[in-house]
Amino acid sequence: MNRTDQQPLGSPFSAASTAEEVTAGLDLSGRNAVVTGGYSGLGLETTRALAAAGARVVVPARRPDVARAALADVPGDTEVVPMDLADPGTVRAAAAHLREALPRLDLLMAVAGVMATPERRVGPGWESQLATNHFGHFVLVCELYPLLAAAPDGARVVVNSSAGHTLTGIRWDDPHFRTGYDKWAAYGQSKTANVLFAVHLDTLGREDGVRAFPLHPGKIITGLQREMALQEQIDLGWVDAHGNVVGEGFKTASQGAATGLWAATSPLLADRGGVYLEDCEIASVSAPGTPMDDGGVRAYAVDPEGAARLWELSVAATGAGPLGR
Is 187 one of the catalytic residues? Predict the structure, then answer.
């Protein structure tokens, strides 16, 4: 992948498209999908759309009972397995269960995440947003790679990033904020990591038919903001004093799930991968200093050398990999 690949291709969908519109007429019978965060917000909309199209959907969940309750009214074939992205041991246990239960994996949707959280340390002292948003998904994909490579028609890995990646690249000298914590910089770094992860995964996986797509789902108020005070969201212009969305350009949850579902299923993306998507389209590269809301992807987030470097850092941190074949 290089910057010239970051060019719109003429998608029939847009920022206003919904999950239902993107998946209308699709038959995913016989396909297996894993959706992290698949029981709330964008993840729940993603699970609902995939199951309605006939896919078997497995939802790893830190709170399995809550997940089962949320999925109780979702028609179709769904299953919940316990997993906490911040705990690699539970990620490996969930992956081991799935390797026993599934003959192959056609779709892996990395939708779960946290945002702008207070400083927390997990595992061996990892910064928690990097650990949850990136390391957890990194370990999961590495552990499930044999199932992805076994998909006869190829597999797709879709990784939810954010326009928040424009806040910062990878802090190579201090990725865990040992020298002072900033919740937004930590979030931005984790979202850049999501993009770089997908870029290098696509490079490694394409010979096996495994393609990866990072994306910005859009601005949506969901449970992702649960650790932000209401007043902070009011000050940012997102909601009013009653919590009603008032910010310009915000999407519904269904619209927010649309780009991921398009990435997972669109024939326009066949033989492509490693490109950053937004609004059901391939995004352009944005210039440094461009406002976040103007869209696009920073060059540092799709840089192949940076992607390879982050992969090496992630292997060293987690002990995951190399990808099995």
Answer: yes
